[in-house]
Design brief:
The complex is a heterodimer.
Chain A (H helix, E strand, L loop, with lengths): L1 E5 L2 E5 L7 H8 L18 E4 L2 E4 L12 E3 L12 H9 L8 H14 L5 H7 L10 H15 L17
Chain B lengths: L21 H6 L14 E7 L5 E7 L1 H5 L3 E5 L8 E3 L6 E3 L4 E2 L5 E7 L2 H8 L3 E6 L27 E5 L2 H7 L2 E9 L11 E7 L2 E7 L3 H12 L6 E6 L12 H13 L3 E4 L2 H6 L7 E9 L5 E13 L11 H4 L5 E10 L16 H15 L4 H8 L20 H7 L2 H4 L14 H11 L1 H4 L8 E3 L2 E13 L11 E4 L5 E4 L9 H13 L6 E4 L17 H27 L9 E4 L2 E4 L8 E3 H5 L13 E3 L13 E13 L5 E11 L6 H20 L33 E4 L17 H18 L9 H10 L9
Parallel strand pairs in B: 1-14, 12-13, 16-17, 21-22, 28-29
Antiparallel strand pairs in B: 1-7, 2-6, 2-8, 3-7, 4-5, 9-17, 10-15, 11-12, 11-14, 15-16, 18-19, 19-27, 20-21, 20-26, 23-24, 24-25, 27-28
Helix pairs in contact in B: 9-19, 15-16, 18-19
The chains are: A alpha+beta, B alpha+beta.
């Protein structure tokens, strides 16, 4: 048995030597928020935090998760109680299809923990390791900046009304 | 024709509400194809061809079947004559047929108790190929003595759009300019991959997969397996970014075949490499063109010949281009398109098909004409592009009609055409207002310094600005009809059943907004099913920018029908027999419209539970569906985009950076500005990727895809596109679309390339081939002997 500490809970899991951490999290613990796309560490969809540091779960073996604190998207907020970063992504619509979104949010979490007051350029650079194919790029960056404000308690929710002349 | 939109009249239309699945997306709980599982499910893997063209002489599965855990194998011997057709001719062929037509083609499939066992069993299938000559080049595939990829031959019939007389156009021209553009294939590079889960219960088949087109997939299974449509249930799950990749794909049919063989639920989950090299891609395309221009800037002729490769299983005759309508001001025109098969992975409709490629060629050649007569590209567009009310150049339904166009129009009765717009004329919108507004916002006249003249030079870095335009259809009727059903429940809540895809474009949300607006209920009272063919009526799926225009129309009509039924009951049971047309619903409350003095009010849920005077019971649940038909969409509706870019080109390294971006969109009434601006910028980034980085590389010896991974196939990332682009809307109301709305997804992708390419030209004075990688930029500069040399 391999003991995995995931989202603040301990699990004893039967992990075969060759099994990939993303598969273990998805298939054995039901954490489907760990989305796997390229499976070669390039797209960042499967980004998790390992002791607070972002990592692509598709490039780790399951047993490498032992003796670490693993955080997945399920560990930072729930449907009824979203994390401020998740609230920001909802408000700015920092996504389209949503497949890459958990990875972006996890990357944003690690980034904002280190840099709570980023500039637009810093946020843009920090998000460039993850791939969004839909092309929500500007709104992802805005989400990160919006999240920074929320986490500092400086955010006032904007309401978009009316349909003419809306600007991005 | 352009009715100015008055936002005040709508309560829900135009609201930037968060998409209804936003919470599922940000918590990772939304279930895509790859996430879906069934009890007792087993796993499948596909054996793929290693050769570009061969007959399978012998296929022996004995060793594979002997591997513990293997439950069954299917080969072409299990699929005799199982033919089917994909959406828009993106696939035509058998599920498995004993001939390999590209490296990666499906040869066999294995079902096993685990993915690992299925994978191991693939190597135990012995295939003996009898090699056939292969054709890997689209122009060579045209030749009479070329190897034939398909029984039907390589070359499809030419598709033409013609008006006027080219010879006359040439006589009227002061200058005639020609040009050839060659495009690499763009990869869908869909983040999210896909899986298909299929199970047979007797002769009933059920399938769960990510798909934009649930109804067409249902039809495909019905065709392939010869079972009644009523026995086919497709549940189209949300997909990752699709751009047209996940419609109805052959791997889904292979899954169904395997599930029928082993009589267990089977899941085939594709790897990223399979998605990028063995499913579908954009066509390789070549556009040759000539344009004639008079000294006053009038385009006198447009003569284009376009070639596209269908890969192995595509069967398209043309690329569905609308650039001929966009530049419809040209006095004479002849656009010809041919589709040709090659032994390369199948190609098909990718976002803004035709208009991102052929459209770019037309825009670039028009730019060269404008340059020749020294006219501002913005003025040149205003002068030569189509305006609302004018005749469309594409009269496409001809080829689908009995008789000719005149017969068709003359044959329409007044009852049929009642409120229809004028057929084969543009009903609403154009680039005109977008260009005027955009010029003002972008300070175009201040920033544009002339053709090939940079706006700023700083050492090796040169900045230039450009403007580009794009058009596309708003769905096409011959892809299939449209319908929608709504159900009004006893508690006043509403279910909408509309066939649509959920690839991130937000249709599930915008269709709910249409329904809530028409029913007069809050958005929270409406829920929608888009993917389950057991409940949604057949409608063409989310392709060809269909959904808002056509499915939105059907959804609104269905709501109107349900509302009429409800108001008739209200009039009889509560409003003393008043004419039901005098009633209206607001916030779920029925009242007499336009009579503030009448204070009678009844809530929908209350009325739904009143004991009716006829049946002595509460009313049955109300079901609504469209009355009447939608006019042929291609005969009047288009969407428009005009985009402005500033780029910085480093003439020392060839690197291009986009430094400023403005995107204008006219898709009629805006249903949800947040959804639309995301679509517009997403389209721009797709188009920007196409002209800056993206292109598939094929091995010249066997056609295999060399860059089938995101490591080798470069996409734009944050930082590669400005983080603060501006988006603006012009809302020319459509007379048919729901509340005046039209399609939106594809014209923005078509406008980006021309804007960026022109900006690069203006920065360095050279036209650069696409993709404009640093190497290509440097080569273009050198070939033109210095940055100031002119290309044309």
């Amino acid at each position: 048995m391999t003991r995995l500490n995931v989202n603040g809970q301990s699990f004893d899991v039967d992990v075969k030597a060759h099994e990939i951490l993303s598969d273990v999290l998805r298939n054995q613990l039901g954490l489907i928020g760990v989305k796997v796309s390229c499976a070669e560490g390039e797209c960042g969809s499967c980004t998790i935090l390992v002791d607070g540091v972002p990592a692509t779960a598709c490039l780790m073996l399951g047993r490498q998760g032992e003796r670490h604190e693993i955080t997945t998207i399920e560990g930072i907020g729930t449907h009824d109680e979203l994390h401020p970063i998740q609230e920001a992504f909802v408000e700015e619509q920092g996504f389209q299809c949503g497949f890459c979104t958990p990875g972006f949010i996890m990357m944003a979490k690690a980034f904002l923990d280190e840099n709570p007051n980023p500039t637009e350029e810093e946020a843009s650079m920090a998000m460039s390791g993850n791939i969004c194919r839909c092309g929500a790029h500007p709104y992802i960056v805005k989400s990160v900046l919006n999240a920074a404000e929320r986490m500092q308690g400086r955010h006032e929710s904007k309401r978009t009304t009316g349909s003419t002349g809306a600007s991005a | 024709m352009n009715v100015l939109h008055k936002p005040k009249k709508f309560k829900i239309v135009g609201q930037g509400i968060p998409v209804i699945d936003a919470r599922e997306k940000v918590t990772g709980s939304l279930e895509y194809g790859v996430d879906f599982v069934l009890p007792r499910m087993v796993h499948g893997k596909i054996k793929r061809s290693t050769v570009p063209h061969a007959r399978i002489k012998r296929i022996d599965v004995t060793r594979a079947l002997a591997l513990p855990g293997v439950l069954g194998v299917v080969t072409h011997e299990d699929a005799p004559g199982l033919n089917w057709m994909g959406v828009w001719d993106n696939y035509r062929g058998q599920i498995l047929d004993g001939i390999s037509r590209f490296v990666g083609d499906e040869v066999a499939a294995v079902a096993a108790t685990s993915v690992e066992i299925a994978d191991a069993a693939l190597d135990l299938i012995d295939v003996e190929y009898e090699p056939l000559p292969a054709v890997l080049d689209v122009e060579k595939a045209l030749l009479d003595d070329a190897p034939q990829v398909r029984e039907e031959g390589n070359v499809r019939d030419e598709y033409r759009v013609v008006w006027g007389d080219l010879d006359e156009g040439e006589t009227q021209a002061d200058y005639v300019i020609d040009q050839e553009m060659r495009y690499k294939a763009q990869n869908y590079a869909g983040i999210g991959r896909n899986a298909c889960i299929c199970t047979w219960d007797g002769d009933q088949v059920s399938m769960w997969t990510s798909s934009q087109t649930p109804s067409e997939l249902q039809t495909g299974i019905h065709q392939a397996f010869g079972i009644p449509m009523s026995n086919v249930r497709v549940v189209a799950l949300p997909s990752g970014c699709s751009f047209g990749l996940w419609w109805s794909n052959n791997f889904m049919m292979v899954t169904a075949l395997l599930a029928r063989k082993v009589r267990k639920p089977v899941k085939i989950e594709l790897t990223s490499q399979e998605c990028m090299a063995a499913v579908k891609r954009r066509h390789i395309e070549i556009t040759r063109g000539r344009m004639g221009v008079a000294k006053d800037g009038t385009l006198t002729m447009a003569d284009f010949s376009h070639l596209m490769d269908n890969g192995a299983y595509g069967f398209k005759t043309d690329v569905y281009f609308f650039c001929c309508d966009l530049w419809g001001g040209a006095r004479n025109g002849d656009y010809r398109v041919r589709g040709v098969n090659t032994n390369l992975v199948t190609s098909g409709c990718m976002r803004a098909v035709g208009d991102i490629t052929m459209g770019l060629a037309v825009e670039r050649l028009a730019d060269k004409c404008a340059h020749k007569v020294n006219m501002d590209p913005l003025e040149f567009r205003i002068k030569n592009q189509i305006k609302s009310g004018q005749q469309l150049r594409m009269q496409e339904p001809r080829q689908h009609m009995k008789g000719n166009l005149t017969d068709y129009i003359d044959g329409l009765t007044e009852e049929q055409t009642g409120n229809w717009p004028k057929m084969f004329h543009l009903s609403s919108g154009s680039t005109h207002e977008l260009l005027l507004k955009g010029a003002e916002k972008f300070r175009w006249h201040e920033r544009w310094k002339g053709w090939g003249v940079p706006t700023r030079v700083n050492g090796s870095k040169r900045r230039g600005v450009g403007v580009g335009t794009g058009a596309h259809c708003c769905g096409v009727e011959f892809g299939g009809n449209t319908s929608s059903v709504v159900r009004l429940n006893h508690d006043g809540s509403v279910n909408v059943f509309s066939a649509a895809g959920r690839q991130g474009q937000g249709s599930e949300t915008t269709l709910v907004q249409v329904a809530a607006e028409e029913m007069g209920v809050p958005v929270e009272k409406v829920s929608i099913v888009t993917g389950d063919t057991y409940v949604v009526p057949w409608a063409s799926g989310s392709s060809a920018s269909t959904t808002m225009f056509r499915t939105g129309w059907a959804t609104r009509e269905a709501c109107r029908d349900a509302k009429t039924q409800l108001l008739k009951i209200a009039a009889r049971e509560f409003f003393d027999g008043i004419d039901h047309e005098k009633l209206d619903i607001e916030d779920g409350i029925i009242r007499v419209a336009d009579d503030p003095a009448d204070n009678r009010r009844i809530a929908i849920d209350e009325l739904m539970n009143v004991l009716c005077s006829d049946s002595l019971s509460q009313t049955s649940v109300i079901t609504g569906r469209p009355n009447g038909v939608m006019p042929p969409t291609i005969a009047f509706a288009r969407q428009w985009a005009a985009q402005f870019a500033e780029v910085e080109v480093d003439v020392g390294t060839g690197e291009i950076r986009i430094t400023d971006y403005l995107a204008g969109q006219d898709s009629g009434t805006v249903m949800n500005p947040k959804v639309l601006k995301n679509q517009v910028i997403g389209g721009a980034i797709c188009g920007a990727g196409f002209v800056l980085y993206e292109g598939m590389e094929f091995d010249p010896s066997d056609g295999r895809v060399l860059n089938d991974s995101l490591l080798d196939y470069k996409l734009l990332r944050t930082g590669d596109f400005p983080s603060d682009p501006e988006v603006f809307f012009v809302e020319s109301q459509d007379p048919v679309g729901p509340f005046g709305a039209r399609g939106a997804g594809e014209s923005p992708a078509a406008a980006a390339g021309p804007a960026i390419c022109q900006a690069v030209h203006n920065a360095i004075g050279v036209w650069v081939d696409v993709p404009m990688t640093p190497e290509t930029v440097m080569r273009a500069i050198k070939e033109n002997e210095g940055p100031k040399a002119m290309a044309s």
